[in-house]
Amino acid sequence: MKLAFLCLGVMGYPMAGHLARAGHQVTVYNRMGSRSDAWLAEFGAFDVDAAPSPEGAVAGAEFVFVCTGNDADLTEVLLGEEGALSAMLKSSCLVDHTTASAELARELAARAAGRGVGWLDAPVSGGQVGAEAGALTIMVGGEEADYRRTSPLLDVYARKHLLMGPAGSGQLTKMVNQICIAGLVQALSEGLRFAQRVGLDGERVVEVISKGAAGSWQMENRAHTMLRGEFEFGFAVEWMRKDLGMALAEARRVATELPVTEIVDRFYAEVEAQGGSRLDTSSLITLLPGTEAPD
After folding, report:
1. Which domain holds residue 243?
2. pLDDT band, residue 292 (cuts 50/70/90)
3. Residue after which a domain boundary falls, among 143, 166, 189
C-alpha cells in the first residue's frame, strides 16, 4: 500500500522503517531534512521517498501515520500551513502515534470525519528499544472499522494493540500507562536505595526479586543502570512530565484524585530543576540519599 509517515524521531524513524521493510511504498516527512536523508539512506533499498512538507508526503496515501512530540507539534503537522489533513484522500485513514491530549484527539477525529478521513489515536509504549524491535504496545481510540483495516499495518511494529473505545480512548489509556509507570519507578528507586543503605548487593537483590511478585518491565530494564548511576538514555524526564501533566489535568476534569502521581510529578520537577530534563525517567533515584554504607 501507499503510506506516509510524518516525523522521524526516535520512535517514528524505526516504525517507518518496519513499514518499508514489510513491502509498502512509504513517503516520509521530517521537519529536519537531514533526518529524512538519513532514513532514505538506511532504507533506500525499499520503495521509499521523502517530501519537503506534510502536505506533499500524504499525496495519494491510503494511510498516514504521525508520531511527534506534543499537542502543539501535532496541530502544526496536521493543521498548519502545508498541513497533512487538508491534503489527505477521502476514505484514507490518519493514525496518530503521538502521546497527546484526549481533547485534541477528539477534535482531530471530528475534523478528519468532516473530510471523510478515518482517525485513530494510537499512542505507543515500549520506548525506542520496542520501536526498533517492532515490539510496541499500542492503545487505540477510534471507530472499529478504521481499526480493523489498520490492524495489519500495526502488526508490523507492535506485539500488542487493542481498540479501547471511541476517539480519545487511546490517549486516556496511555495516561493510565504513565500513571502506573510513575509509581513503579519511584518504588523501584526507593527499593534499590534501601538495599544499598542496609548493605545488600543491589544486583543480587534484583536478580532474585525480579523473578517474583515485585518483578516489572522497569526492574528488568532499568534497575541495573540505576544502580550504576547511568541515565543518559531512554524516555526523558521532560516528556514524562508532559504526559503526567495531561493525566493530572484529565483527573481534575473528572474529579479523580491521583495522589502518588502528583508526588512523583513534583519529584520529576526537582530532577528538572537540577538540570536533568533530558535524563531517563529512572533518574528519580538521584533524589534519594547516596549509596554510602550504613554506620
Report:
1. 173-287
2. low
3. 166
